[in-house]
Amino acid sequence: QSPPTILITYYTQSGKTQAMAEAVAAGVSEVKGVEYILKPMANVTKEEVLNASAIILGSPVYNANMAPQVQEFINSWPFEGRPLKDKIGAVFVTGGGFSIGEEAVMFNMIRAMMIQGMIIVGGEEVETAFGASAITGEGEFVGKEVQEIFLKKAEGLGKRVGEMVLRVQ
Ligand SMILES: Cc1cc2nc3c(=O)[nH]c(=O)nc-3n(C[C@H](O)[C@H](O)[C@H](O)COP(=O)(O)O)c2cc1C
């Protein structure tokens, strides 16, 4: 039997959310006995969604909402028979500023996953209770790269999801 697979998928325009996705994948790879698929949403197949034991979704914050491409992806998930029920779900976001949408977007994605009957998991630390978020455009966090403190949160999220997938098997 092949090991359980975690689908890590994201939308990005300027690479910040992709950097977080890569850190999530690094966290998953710390857990033995699980595999992951890491790719942008546009390239994800229906089979990859259906076969995943966990789905970890990433979005940038656009006007305090998830990117429309992320909403479209979620809307494309099959619902009849609730085939995503009992899969683990987790989220990560990047937003330009503090408290101008990041947490709202996390909960928008979490709510959509809960409609599917998914089991929501946060990160390792209380600072990632709802998932991993990064600030990319305010104060000391302005810059081309996502800061290490946020990448660590993403890594912890990936690790916890990996561990939880093995636990609920
Ligand atoms: C059209 C648009 C709207 C945005 N609206 C918000 C916002 O409401 N709140 C926020 O925190 N950041 C906002 N941002 C900033 C992005 O969320 C931020 O730069 C993010 O890290 C970009 O991710 P990416 O590099 O993966 O594309 C907005 C960016 C764009 C392009």
Automatic annotation (TrEMBL):
| Entries under Pfam families matching the protein | FMN_red
Q: Which residues form the Flavodoxin-like domain?
A: 6-158
Q: Which UniProt keywords apply?
A: Signal
Which residue ranges run through the membrane? none
Q: Which SUPFAM superfamilies match?
A: Flavoproteins (SSF52218)
Question: Known InterPro entries for this protein?
Answer: Flavodoxin/NO_synth, Flavoprotein-like_sf, FMN_Rdtase-like_dom
Question: Quick check: keyword Signal in the entry?
Answer: yes
**Annotated protein name in UniProt:** Flavodoxin family protein
